[in-house]
Amino acid sequence: MTSTVNGGTVSLAATTEHLSYFGHDVWWLIVIKAVFCFAFAMLTVLFSIVWERKVVAWMQLRIGPNRHGPWGMLQSLADGVKLMLKEDLNVKRADVVVYVMAPIVSAIPAFMAFAVIPFGPADNEISIFGHRTPMQLTDLPIGILYILATASVGIYGIVLAGWSSGSTYPLLGGLRASAQMISYEIAMGLSFAAVFLYTGSMSTSTIVSAQHQRWYAILLPVSFLIYIATMVGETNRAPFDMPESEGDLVGGFNTEYSSIKFALFMLAEYVNMVTVSAVATTLFLGGWRAPWPISTVWDGANHGWWPLLWFVIKVNLLLFFFIWLRGTLPRVRYDQLMKLGWKVLIPVSMVWLMLVAAVRAMRNENYDFTKIVLYIGGAVIALLLISLVVDLFRDREDKRAAPPGGAPAPPERFDPMAGGYPVPPLPGQQMERVPRRPSRAQGQLVGASPAPDVTQKENEEDGDA
Asked: Mean pLDDT across the chain, nearest whole number?
């Protein structure tokens, strides 16, 4: 059984060969590698928190943390110690068991994805206390599905935190997080599917090995851009941080949390940032492989401990992208968030996946590359022309339905309190203006007598009664 990768034919036995490097370590070596994965995630989180505060301060012409440690580098460690020493509160209306378990459920799955992330080539084993081992804890034939599964479990912690708090704002934040995860997880899975079609495997080590000639960010640019958008929405980061929007939800799902439980939620958010950045590096940026100029002029760039350096640099560049977005873009509205997920990312990813599948099928049938471009490009142009014609006829129908004279139809008026509670107007609806009492300054400007004091008038009415 074979699969085509980068124009060549690769046997699926290569997948088994890569997986054969795993499962032979002694128990204490497995423990060391597991502790390394945990320590890598924790140290990256501590660095990224300080780096975020430094970069955002630089963007906003501020100083940033500069007290704890050299250049303020121990600020995040000091914050963690402070949160652990703060008073831990439990709200009275909370479901205590679920309330306490929610931060743990949110934090633990964030670390589990690193079990299948390759920090180096599987066939280039390093020596640890005299034992040869690959720079990866383990690998699975369905490693990417394992990452998706662990990422999906983490959202339960946020939903349970919002439900168990017994408060309105956390409940709304948990509901937003669940809807946001569903919307963006679909597009994320479809972006992964294009990588599976090119590689013929879901193993992370095999996917990195398949990018020895060209990174998938270049071969599959649409999938890469879709994943970049979905990973920001998946981690609830600005501008998609609607589950914890302080403007309307106070703090969102973690409003009623304090001390170590709040620290676990914060830790889970930043570990998820590191996880999605590591997945993006593995799937689209060549993983542990050195960048193009270095890999061509230096034969030893992808051997020994050097692959770990390239992997760390790529992950931190993606973390800088997270920070850049937060310091640049404002928060979007929730309807805009859902519209981007369901009406843009999912349809585009489905169409792109169909195109990639068609190209791979034609390459497997030994079609010439120019014919593939002609057929696929012709199909895309035909679809665009059809959509243009449909839009033209739709505009004609709208013009026919418009009132004579070209005047727009008056907006529909509605009662915001008709359902018993205030609701905002929908598109095309207009709310009745509430008359306001003019201020004293406005009354003096127009020459009228100043507006009477409402409190004094009410007191006079009460005295007459």
From this structure: 81
